[in-house]
Amino acid sequence: MTGPGRDAPGPLHLGVLVSGTGTTLLAIEEACRQGRLPARIALVTSDREECPALRAAEERGLAVERLPRPKSLPPGRWEEALDAALQRHRVELVVLAGFLRILPASFLVAWSGRVINLHPSLLPKFGGPGMYGPRVYEAVIASGDRETGATVHLVTAEVDRGPVLQQRRWPVQPGESAEELAKRQKPMEHALIVDVIGSFAARPRPPPS
Ligand code: GRF
Question: What are the tens digits of pLDDT across the range 70-91?
């Protein structure tokens, strides 16, 4: 049988991991809501009990699960809980949107090729452990580079070293501060991650089980 939408796989189910302010999450949510991205945020999660991103997700009626990591938690349990939550919500692609915890290698192997991260520089420049958020913009400005950009890459056990999916570049303005650069480039970062998610959504994939 043929016909419009007959074999359409439906919106790509996203699991978005957050730790911070949530501007990336909100950009993805808006793109989904406006029909610019054939995807749906199936779950927002964090190892934090509270952060602005979680509150913003709840205000928009998104499914939120908090996965705290008390010191008493036996090794391996946290990633098991994360995996279970993602499966429960039928997540197909995991998006790290300002998520600060380094994910365990066992989780990344199980989800290989299905976890992406947005990094606010032209990796491998200004990447690696400890390089996130404001630190990256500060390092770019301190370097004197005239050009910077953002990267979306697959997440592997080596921090910020997974295969690059897409990079976009733009100039650093003369005399610009790290805060000014961050503010100016955020919308461009958001457009980049939305585009990359769109390319995942366009790929053929197995029907939901
Ligand atoms: C941004 O700098 C982004 O490039 C990086 O983490 C930050 C996320 O900010 N991945 P927000 O929480 O989405 O506002």
Answer: 999 999 999 999 999 999 999 9
> Cα(101)–Cα(17) distance, rounded to whole angstroms?
10
Supply the residue whose CA is at minimum distance from atom 9 of ligand 1: 98
Nearest to 48 by CA among 113, 100, 13, 7: 100
Q: Is 101 exposed, middle or buried (0-12, 13-18, 19+ CB in 10 A)?
A: middle
β-bridge partners, 170: 148
What is the spatial distance between Cα 195 and Cα 193, in angstroms, rounded to a whole number? 5
167 touches ligand 1 (CB under 6 Å): no
Q: Which of 118, 137, 151, 196 to mutate to test the pocket of ligand 1 (most atoms within 8 A of CB)?
A: 118
Q: What is the DSSP letter of 201?
A: H
- Please name the residue whose Cα sits nearest to atom 14 of ligand 1: 23
Distance 131 CA to ligand 1 centre (A): 12
134 CA from centroid of ligand 1 (Å): 9
Half-sphere exposure of 46 (CA within 13 A, CB side): 22
Contact 107, 124 (CB under 8 A): no
- Whole-structure pTM value: 0.94
**Residues forming the active site:** 119
